[in-house]
Design a protein that fits this description.
heterodimer; A: 110 residues; globular; B: 116 residues; mainly beta; seven-stranded mixed β-sheet; four-stranded antiparallel β-sheet
């Protein structure tokens, strides 16, 4: 089971790019990586998902190096509304091995 | 399209009681997963149901159980409640489940359970 580690908190300012890294040293060959955003009193919201290299969608990018032992969520030009907790999830393609990171509390300041 | 709904949103029980939580997935989604979220342990996977069958299970005691109905709605039951069961219980639905490649899970708002 992959152990996932994230920084507990990060601070940023509006308009900056934010990179949050998740470490998953013993990730398995058939594991995928997903990132979620969670606001208080709400369930996690899907941001982005990938297996290797780089994935980009309309809200974020996900960078996964060749060894896949870490992944970095990149949020371009953050705003105050991006203040939330961000979780990485490593899961296998059987769906029976899932490990969430402890979450990174991102504070965006004006 | 309506999102994942969970009822009730808040619940207070006492030790030893049992509780049933309900989850209605997004229309067309056949997989429903349940998670427990606590400040100490974070997000932990409970189990996944697909087509009325439990397909995957996390590392929780047998007091935690669930079921899924033919319309994909799911219920989770916790018997003999303990103080440590106080948590936010989240359900998530997806088309085919996390084990099916890059399927996307959509979470509900959760049920906040407090055990006194």
């Amino acid at each position: 089971l992959a152990k996932t580690t994230q920084p507990i908190s990060m601070d940023s300012y509006e308009g900056q790019e934010v990179n949050i890294t998740c470490s998953h040293n013993n990730i398995a060959t058939n594991d995928y990586i997903t990132w979620y955003q969670q606001f208080p009193s709400q369930g996690p919201r899907f941001i982005i998902q990938g297996y290797k290299t780089k994935v980009t969608n309309e809200v974020a990018s996900l960078f996964i190096p060749a060894d896949r032992k870490s992944s970095t969520l990149s949020l371009p030009r953050v705003s105050l509304s991006d203040t939330a907790v961000y979780y990485c999830l490593v899961h296998n393609n059987a769906g029976n091995m899932l490990t969430f990171g402890g979450g990174t509390r991102l504070m965006v300041k004006p | 399209k309506a999102g994942v709904t969970q009822t009730p949103r808040y619940l207070i029980k006492t030790r030893g009681q049992q509780v049933t939580l309900s989850c209605s997935p997004i229309s067309g989604h056949r997989s429903v997963s349940w998670y427990q979220q606590t400040p100490g342990q974070g997000l932990q996977f409970l189990f996944e149901y697909f087509s009325e069958t439990q397909r995957n299970k996390g590392n929780f005691p047998g007091r935690f159980s669930g079921r899924q109905f033919s319309n994909s709605r799911s219920e989770m039951n916790v018997s003999t409640l303990e103080l440590g069961d106080s948590a936010l219980y989240l359900c998530a639905s997806s088309l085919e489940g996390l084990g099916q490649g890059l399927d996307t899970q959509y979470f509900g708002p959760g049920t906040r359970l407090t055990v006194l």
